[in-house]
Amino acid sequence: MFTRYKRFNPDGSGGFPTKENLTETPKPTKGQYAIEITLFALFGVLLALAGMALYTTNSKEYKTVPNLVAEGIKQDRVNILLFGVGGDHHPSNDQLADSIMLVSLKPSTRQAAVVSIPRDLWVHLGVYGAHRLNYAHLIGNGSGYPGSGPGLLRDTVSRVFAQPVHAFVRVDFDSFEKIVDAVGGIDVYCQRGFYDFLFKDGFEKGWHHLNGKRALAYARYRYIDGPEGDNFGREVRQQQVMNAVRDKLQRADSQTVIRLIAAMPSLSASTQTNLTTPQMISLYRTFRTIDPKQIKHVSLKPLTQIFEVRRLTEPGEAVRPRSGDYREFQAVEKAIFSSEAAAANDVRFASTPAPRPAPPSLAD
């Protein structure tokens, strides 16, 4: 016997329908089907894009700063960004760029120029807003920027000076000390004696032979009353140190220097460069016998002004171009080998007497 509610008791068992079996599951409409399919498709696309982004940002190519040295050689000008960081042995593992220099090399004439860039230069770091230039390395490391910290710092310097940056070298404090010690220490002439009241240490006027630890202190001390305490005083000392290291490398035998170059990538985890070992050796051989008179040491101090930053997170003094833009910076860099445009900004290690000759030994 079949009931009129055949669909609920198809076996004809009879019985009355209940409230539960009278309730039918609603079927989605065609429009709802379309929406569901679209949402699933969108979710799939987003998932695929996220996977691609994760793969890309973790790929070696994404984390690597492109090496453009071959392009620079063709243009007869190789620009190398050289900067230091605190590294693992710094008390706070500081990833701010401590000193920043743009080294330009002209292979055909064996000329070189070293421009000290103020670490407190106030710049726009792309989508990350305005900060001091030394923040570029820190922000780049933590934001997933292509090439990480060196990539953002390189791109910012390139934009400021309107020059391609073909390679970079990052050296931490520990590696710097090892390099200075490896060349037997350096000799610098302190033009103005100074005392750092934070570290309770200083240097008297005159010649000093410095090992790695003392050379780092000479280049870094800044809690100083007087002109040696500002960033530009530090820049002169940093260029002195760099010049002294170059002088020792110039006088060292080739095999020693080549071994040091080959060991650079393993000096510490924070020391890094995108220069290849053959490129470093080639540049060393080209510029090994460079005449010191063919090296320009440039400060941007005459082209800048100091101002006060009132931002709560980054208070204190910073540096900006006196012209309001980077035109004067760019003019100096563009003509650095071809005119006197940079002469007014040259760092001169004035009043530097010759080192006293060493006393004769008993064997002489």
Report on this model:
The chain has 364 residues and is an alpha+beta fold. It folds into two domains: 19-57; 69-345, 3-Layer(aba) Sandwich (Aminopeptidase), CATH 3.40.630. It is 37% helix and 19% strand. It has twelve helices and 14 strands. The chain has helices at residues 19-22, 30-57, 60-63, 69-74, 135-143, 148-161, 173-182, 212-220, 231-251, 254-263, 277-287, 327-334; strands at residues 78-85, 99-106, 111-117, 122-124, 130-132, 167-172, 186-190, 194-196, 201-203, 206-210, 272-273, 295-299, 304-309, 316-321. It has a six-stranded mixed sheet, with helices on both faces. A hairpin with a 4-residue loop joins strand 2 and strand 3. Helix 5 packs across helix 6 (148-161) and helix 7 crosses helix 8. The longest helix has 28 residues, at 30-57.
